[in-house]
């Protein structure tokens, strides 16, 4: 293993370290400046609802462009190839547009401070508590995965032990998130978006030049022996684990494109929180739609580098690849998670290497800060304030938010070691989404469009759906069902969704619904149309600020990309 680590070391010099030092100084400076704007708990948790759409839109996409997204999708690119693009074009864009057009009017218009608080108003305390606890748990697990990936970068760069790198990396994110709250996280996410793009675009271009362009990459993949990444996005049988192309497409469209995708993008408070920080209803609706424009093109700078690494990096080729595809340790000691780092090592000169490393560090901090800022809001408002310490002065909850951020960071350090057991962290991430997001989406979509659904059905459906996904996971892990690749998470998500719906409908007809007067603003059919519409005057005027028109443009481009690739 010592040999493997030596092979992974990057040849960074003083220029690279100077660039990294400058970047860290800038990040902490933004946190310090943001602290001066924080005087209330609303400022800390939701930026006082004062940010413009372009800021929240870029933060929306940057919060999702964490280390898991960058290194995880590159790992997927190295292992599976272009079908990974479905996580963007099928598994993100449609749901982001649905969030902006249909769901943000309910979130923003009701002035709730979190997604679980929406559950409280629609379904009552049991569903609120179940959602609050499950969401907080998921954020700590995902923050740990981000933390582990940053530690890998520091380990490769400096040779520090993983455990030391994890602790030091956590301290940096804790510092600026605890100082400036959501504003510090969002402004840093905007900065981090540009740093990530500046890092990955040159790497992609240099990589394509090395392999002879796109056609050269296709030829190299076609000539390589054994199981290689796929150059076509459809039908994606290698990523779903389904032998049948038909069922693979069904799994991608229903399991990923509908259940996992809508479950994540429309109910995940990490993303919704950015939109809720907007200054108006129109800005809140445009936030995920603005984020969808760059989201469409992210596959080209994360997946393609992974594919290039699969056919150019020695540690991921031949016997090493055969071992990794078979879920065994590679003789080189590398995993698919190392694809991006290894490509950077082989292709980038000093100076550009420093920018690339800053980009990876940025992606980690964007992801973990998003996890922490949403965790502290949900834990402080939806668990502590609601069930433990009620009716305290606002300053109490502001201080609590900072302490909760510190506690969440410590817990994430622990969960980082769970993430370290996965050769491809996207397998881990999709599994978590099937547990937590898929059943929540089923409950949300029923509750928002079916006024008869009862409070008891809300929490029983959630619990039943989660247990169904866990059951599929256990069956797959024990070998009772054979679902290679990420098929277990797709099937688990589908099972969670269906079981949640069935249980919710059955329980609804056995229990009494809320009076309709209590559901105005929470159920689509009972909410006046004028309250769901965006302003068209002042800062919201202009056809280019029309959410529906922008969504239509995004959808058309996405369809074209699916046809081409």
UniProtKB/TrEMBL annotation:
It comes from the Bacteria. This is SSS family solute:Na+ symporter. It is found in: Membrane. The chain crosses the membrane at residues 17-34, 54-75, 87-108, 129-151, 157-179, 191-209, 246-267, 288-311, 352-379, 400-422, 428-450, 457-476, 488-510, 548-564. Keywords: Membrane, Transmembrane, Transmembrane helix. It is a multi-pass membrane protein. GO terms for molecular function: D-glucose:sodium symporter activity. Belongs to the sodium:solute symporter (SSF) (TC 2.A.21) family. GO terms for cellular component: plasma membrane. The keyword Iron-sulfur does not apply. InterPro entries: Na/Glc_symporter_sf (IPR038377), Na/solute_symporter (IPR001734), Na/solute_symporter_CS (IPR018212). PROSITE patterns: NA_SOLUT_SYMP_1, NA_SOLUT_SYMP_3. Its main location: membrane.
């Amino acid at each position: 293993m010592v040999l493997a680590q030596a092979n992974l070391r990057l040849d960074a010099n003083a220029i690279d370290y100077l660039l990294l030092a400058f970047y860290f100084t800038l990040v902490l400076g933004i946190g310090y400046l943001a602290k001066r704007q924080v005087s209330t708990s609303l400022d800390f948790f939701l930026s006082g609802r004062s940010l413009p759409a372009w800021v929240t839109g870029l933060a929306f996409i940057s919060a999702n462009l964490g280390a898991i997204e960058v290194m995880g999708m590159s790992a997927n690119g190295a292992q599976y190839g272009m079908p990974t693009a479905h996580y963007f074009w099928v598994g993100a864009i449609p749901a982001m547009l649905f969030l902006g057009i249909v769901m943000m009017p309910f979130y923003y218009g009701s002035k709730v401070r979190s997604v679980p608080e929406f559950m409280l108003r629609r379904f009552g305390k049991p569903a609120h508590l179940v959602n609050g606890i499950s969401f907080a748990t998921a954020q700590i697990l995902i923050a740990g995965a981000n933390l582990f990936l940053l530690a890998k970068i520091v380990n490769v760069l400096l040779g520090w032990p993983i455990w030391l790198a994890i602790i030091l990396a956590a301290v940096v994110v804790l510092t600026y998130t605890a100082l400036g709250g959501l504003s510090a996280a969002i402004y840093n996410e905007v900065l981090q978006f540009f740093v990530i793009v500046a890092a990955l675009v040159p790497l992609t271009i240099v990589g394509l030049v090395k392999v002879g362009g796109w056609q050269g990459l296709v030829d190299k993949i076609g000539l390589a022996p054994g199981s290689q990444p796929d150059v076509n996005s459809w039908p994606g049988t290698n990523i779903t684990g389904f032998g049948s192309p038909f069922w693979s497409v069904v799994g991608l469209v229903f399991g990923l494109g509908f259940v996992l995708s809508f479950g994540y993008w429309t109910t995940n408070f990490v993303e919704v929180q950015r939109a809720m920080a907007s200054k108006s209803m129109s800005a809140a609706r445009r936030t995920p739609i603005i984020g969808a424009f760059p989201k469409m093109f992210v596959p080209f700078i994360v997946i393609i580098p992974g594919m290039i690494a699969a056919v150019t990096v020695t540690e991921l080729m031949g016997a090493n690849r055969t071992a990794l595809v078979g879920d065994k340790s590679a003789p080189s000691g590398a995993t698919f998670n190392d694809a991006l780092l290894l490509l950077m090592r082989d292709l980038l000169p000093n100076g550009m290497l420093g920018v690339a490393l800053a980009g990876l560090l940025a992606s980690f901090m964007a992801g973990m800060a998003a996890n922490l800022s949403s965790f502290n809001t949900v834990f402080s408002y939806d668990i502590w304030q609601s069930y433990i310490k009620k009716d305290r002065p606002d300053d109490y909850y502001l201080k609590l938010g900072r302490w909760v951020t510190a506690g969440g960071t410590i817990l994430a350090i622990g969960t980082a070691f769970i993430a370290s057991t996965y050769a491809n962290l996207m397998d881990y991430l999709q599994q978590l989404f099937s547990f937590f997001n898929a059943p929540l989406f089923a409950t949300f979509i029923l509750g928002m469009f079916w006024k008869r659904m009862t409070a008891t059905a809300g929490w029983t459906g959630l619990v039943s759906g989660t247990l169904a996904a866990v059951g599929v996971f256990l069956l797959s892990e024990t070998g009772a069902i054979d679902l290679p690749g990420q098929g277990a998470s797709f099937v688990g998500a589908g099972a969670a969704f269906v079981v949640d719906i069935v249980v919710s409908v059955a329980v609804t007809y056995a229990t009494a619904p809320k009076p309709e007067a209590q559901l105005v603003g929470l159920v689509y059919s009972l909410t006046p149309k004028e309250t769901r519409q965006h302003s068209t005057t002042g800062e919201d005027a202009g056809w280019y600020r029309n959410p529906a028109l922008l969504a239509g443009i995004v959808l058309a481009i996405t369809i074209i990309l699916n046809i081409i690739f």
